[in-house]
Amino acid sequence: APPMLHVATKPIASSVSAVEWELFQKNRGGNLEQIFEHALLHVWSTPNPFYTNQELIEVSVQHFELTGEIWWLLLRNAVNVPVEIWPIRPDRISPVPSRDDYIAGYLYQAGAERIPLATEDVIFVRRPSPLDPYRGIGFVASILSTISTEREASEWTAQFFHNNAEPGGIIEFSEDLDDVSFQRVHN
Fold first, then answer.
1. Rounded mean pLDDT of 167-171?
2. How far is CA 114 from CA 41, 107, 109, in A?
3. Could you give the CA distance from residue 29 to residue 6 in angstroms, rounded to a whole number?
């Protein structure tokens, strides 16, 4: 990704991941009550053996800012309780539409292998896309042409300086130039 995308997403992702997250539930009176002991708090504080809570949130926010999507895979224990949360790259997962249930499941692309995932094992958060009801949209989509133009301009500039800042090519004239015409072309 171009450096400007990292510069744009890093401060946001770092700030969100630095927040102290807490769990609340509504009591019978409708008021929020903080929960201090719950299985969800354990999996949230240690999402999986390779990610800290801060890393999970940071990569999730980066995905959200870039693609408008956060995808998490839940791994469950023998009694069907989530014990791990894994971030999924948005470019590797696809919803499987359903006429009856809207989404029948998901397909995760791992190399050449396509792994089916159940809807209850995937958490999907998105910034709704006006182009696709099953996907999200990030700010990158709105600046793709700018990114492409910047990359092309950067490549052209690099080539220009690699060529000693001299334009390539040969100018041919159909007739010999006198001294005044030569000086005018040369300058």
1. 69
2. 31, 6, 5
3. 45
Residues linked to residue 163 through DSSP beta bridges, in sequence order: none
Q: Which of 23-27, 142-146, 161-165 has the lowest mean pLDDT?
A: 142-146
Q: 106-123: per-residue pLDDT in tens?
A: 999 999 999 999 999 999
* Local confidence band at 156 (pLDDT 50, 70, 90 cut-offs): confident
CA distances from residue 101 to 17, 94, 98, 105, 135 in whole angstroms, order as listed:
33, 16, 5, 9, 16
Residues in the chain: 187
DSSP state for residue 113 in the 8-state scheme = E
Q: CB of 46 within 8 A of CB of 53?
A: yes
Within the chain, strands assigned E span 23-26, 32-35, 69-76, 82-88, 93-98, 102-110, 113-117, 122-126
